């Protein structure tokens, strides 16, 4: 059974998905609020907030009002708040008004640190997350900035008791920036700073001084190693930390505002009294801080609570400004071709490709017999994989050393949880996760030989990849070397990207998906801004027919006639398109475009010009029926590998052979894009087990 026969069959019939957020590591125990998910997908600033201040830091209703005020401050500064908490055994990143109120009133809420997360989740309990647990949730969601009141530290006499807050070790192993008012004076601040140094944590005071703050007081008697004077300096420090891939955090210490520092002396005296009382009563561990704060509030007649709220408000303001500056800084680097994906190292390949298209969960049912009988149970096997034309092409490119940005959409359901867990190796920061939508699913029934018998798809979510959503990535699109469009996205979105392509001279590849969707760019002059397309013969007919050009009523059967028709149908489209790669099933691949040194010039064009046209035909590789496992990704593997080769400036022959090898790997894998796909596995010079059919050359003019 020949390779491209399978690929062509799928291209004719397949249906796909599209659109969600940055949560590549999301799973069923983590729930991200839609506002947070959307902000992350749009590369907008997000600020994580802890919730122990709600459950254990203040009495009701001060806790609730403070939480709402802090979120309002974050929004007023242009960022999205993401308060983290555990509700009924699930970690929520971003809380609704009802969920905030629930935590504020819940008397049985637990104080949840890293250590406590497994137990609280296993028991289905609720609680407020400490600094360490909030850092874990924020980093998992892809939020780089977290604002809190004060962090924990080394307790007094900690050198003997070894009572050291998990906040410090978390800062040493979680790459996130924590904005706080320093460390409470009830702790051993000197040893806390020493411990942070041991953990490799970069500490900087925010403002005009290096004085390290002590929560209620702007001066602790100790100095920070470093100082940042404004949001931009702080953003650069954070960006550098993340780009280095050190896997440790940054502590930005923000002094309490001067107008509230005057009460600091009175509060400090009350703290010393409360510390003595706590020791006398034998209060230890995690109960010390809540006890002292309550006592201090009583002794200062509410002044400590007012100062506490004031510094939290100030931290929220400063932290949000830093988050906004960081967002701009990273966007600026992306527009210059420099990228950093949260959780990846700076050695990641350059982001030069944007893929806009579908994500689906595929269910493949393969019968054990060549003939399937409808209306009764057939013996066979059923397995799940992850597909979608856009996702497949982005996956293929990612495994071949590129770093494409995938813009797509999923629902907020269990299917999307599985998708994001599987796609951790990809840049899915442009995927939006939508509430009240279903992740696209595709079910295909194939015979023993791999031929498709029946396919069903739930693809409505593709319509959510709107022009408005995609336009939020205009900077990335405008600076990309190549943009790839999946035919499942709306016509208006295709037209928008084509208008950008015309304006910024961007090379765009259109993957038609099926014969019906192949017409989308050709309903207007949008198609004239395309550079590449990879249709099969039926899709190529649709393109011509949509333009009012003559097409054969019946497709030819003989190889020579197939090539003749493919050349004739390709010729008028090449008046504007740079190159067409026509997949011909058992008849192989026809590459059409500008003549260059006896072949077709595949390299991205810099400007349109008059050229001499030619075509090169590559016969198909053979794949036996016994070898064929999954036909749903061969065409996408071919397109991805072909594009990777083009961007690596490989010659045409090498590019096409890489594509054919990638497609072959896909056919013999249960996954649309084979996990074994690597640059070496599709290198024609390293794969010598296959006979290479000789390509044939023909003129088109």
As a whole number of angstroms, the C-alpha radius of gyration is 29 Å
- The overall average pLDDT, rounded, is 86
| Global structural class | alpha/beta
What would CATH call the architecture of the largest domain? 3-Layer(aba) Sandwich
> What is the domain tally?
3
What does this structure look like?
This protein has 701 residues and is of the alpha/beta class. It folds into 3 domains: 3-20 and 342-699, UDP-N-acetylmuramoyl-L-alanine:D-glutamate ligase (3-Layer(aba) Sandwich), CATH 3.40.1190.20; 23-143, Indigoidine synthase domain (Indigoidine synthase fold, 3-Layer(aba) Sandwich); 148-341, Indigoidine synthase domain (Indigoidine synthase fold), CATH 3.40.1790. It is 38% helix and 19% strand. It contains 24 helices and 26 strands. The strands form 3 sheets. Strands 1, 2, 3, 4, 5, 6, 7, 8, 9, 10 and 11 form an 11-stranded mixed sheet that branches. Strands 12, 15, 16, 19, 20, 21, 22, 23, 24, 25 and 26 form an 11-stranded mixed sheet that branches. Helix 1 crosses helix 24 (652-667), helix 4 (62-76) packs parallel to helix 15 and helix 23 (634-647) packs antiparallel against helix 24. It is elongated, with a radius of gyration of 29 Å. Mean pLDDT is 86; it is low at 1-27 and 334-350.
């Amino acid at each position: 059974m020949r390779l491209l026969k399978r690929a062509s069959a799928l291209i004719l019939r397949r249906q796909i998905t599209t659109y969600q957020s940055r949560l590549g590591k999301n799973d069923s125990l983590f729930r991200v609020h839609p506002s947070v998910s959307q902000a992350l997908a749009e590369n907008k600033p997000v600020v994580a907030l802890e919730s122990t201040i709600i459950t254990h830091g203040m009495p009701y209703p001060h806790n609730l009002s403070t939480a709402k005020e802090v979120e309002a401050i974050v929004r007023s500064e242009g960022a999205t708040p993401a308060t983290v908490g555990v509700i009924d055994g699930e970690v929520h990143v971003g809380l609704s008004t009802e969920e905030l109120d629930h935590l504020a009133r819940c008397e049985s809420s637990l104080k949840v640190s890293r250590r406590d997360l497994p137990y609280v989740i296993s028991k289905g309990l609720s609680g407020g997350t400490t600094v360490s647990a909030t850092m874990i949730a924020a980093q998992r969601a892809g939020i780089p900035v977290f604002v809190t009141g004060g962090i924990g530290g080394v307790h007094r006499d900690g050198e003997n008791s070894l009572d050291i807050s998990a906040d410090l070790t978390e800062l040493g192993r979680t790459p996130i920036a924590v904005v706080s008012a320093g460390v409470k004076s009830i702790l051993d601040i000197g040893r806390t700073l020493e411990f942070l140094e041991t953990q490799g944590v970069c500490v900087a005071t925010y403002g005009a001084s290096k004085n390290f703050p002590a929560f209620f007081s702007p001066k602790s008697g100790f100095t920070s190693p470093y100082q940042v004077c404004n949001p931009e300096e702080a953003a650069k420090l954070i960006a550098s930390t993340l780009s280095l891939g050190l896997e440790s955090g940054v502590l930005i210490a923000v002094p309490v505002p001067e107008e509230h520092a005057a009460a600091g002396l009175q509060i400090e005296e009350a703290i010393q009294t409360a510390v003595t009382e706590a020791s006398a009563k034998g209060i230890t561990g995690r109960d010390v801080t809540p006890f002292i704060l309550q006592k201090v509030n009583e002794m200062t007649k509410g002044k400590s609570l007012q100062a506490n709220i004031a510094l939290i408000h100030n931290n929220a303001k400063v932290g949000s400004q830093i988050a906004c500056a960081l967002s701009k800084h990273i966007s600026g680097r992306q527009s210059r071709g420099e990228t950093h994906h949260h959780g990846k190292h700076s050695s990641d390949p350059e982001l030069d490709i944007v893929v806009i298209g579908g994500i689906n969960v595929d269910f493949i049912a393969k019968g054990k017999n060549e003939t399937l009988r409808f209306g009764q149970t057939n013996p066979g096997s059923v397995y799940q994989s992850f597909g979608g034309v856009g996702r497949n092409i982005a996956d293929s490119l990612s495994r071949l050393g590129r770093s494409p940005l995938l813009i797509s959409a999923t629902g907020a359901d269990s299917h999307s949880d599985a998708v994001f867990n599987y796609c951790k190796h990809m840049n899915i920061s442009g995927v939006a996760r939508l509430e009240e939508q279903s992740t696209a699913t595709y079910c295909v029934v194939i015979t023993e030989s791999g031929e498709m018998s029946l396919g069903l798809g739930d693809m409505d979510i593709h319509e959510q990849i709107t022009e408005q959503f995609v336009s939020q990535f205009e900077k990335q699109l405008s600076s990309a070397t190549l943009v790839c469009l999946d035919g499942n996205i709306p016509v208006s979105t295709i037209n928008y990207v084509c208008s950008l392509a015309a304006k910024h001279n961007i090379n765009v590849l259109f993957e038609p998906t099926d014969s019906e969707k192949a017409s989308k760019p050709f309903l207007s002059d949008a198609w004239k801004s395309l550079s590449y397309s990879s249709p099969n013969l039926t899709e190529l007919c649709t393109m011509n027919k949509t333009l009012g050009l003559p097409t054969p009523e019946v497709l030819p059967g003989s190889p020579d006639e197939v090539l003749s028709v493919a050349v004739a149908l390709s010729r008028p489209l090449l008046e504007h398109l740079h190159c067409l790669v026509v997949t011909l099933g058992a008849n192989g691949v026809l590459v059409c475009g500008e003549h260059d040194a006896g072949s077709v010039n595949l390299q991205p064009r810099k400007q349109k010009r008059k050229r001499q046209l030619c075509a090169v035909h590559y016969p198909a590789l053979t794949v036996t029926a016994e070898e064929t496992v999954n036909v749903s990704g061969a065409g996408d593997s071919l397109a991805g590998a072909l594009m990777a080769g083009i961007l690596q400036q490989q010659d045409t022959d090498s590019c096409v052979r890489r594509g054919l090898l990638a497609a072959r790997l896909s056919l013999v894998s249960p996954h649309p894009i084979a996990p074994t796909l690597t640059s070496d596995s599709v290198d024609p010079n390293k794969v010598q087990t296959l006979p290479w059919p000789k390509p044939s050359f023909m003129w088109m003019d």
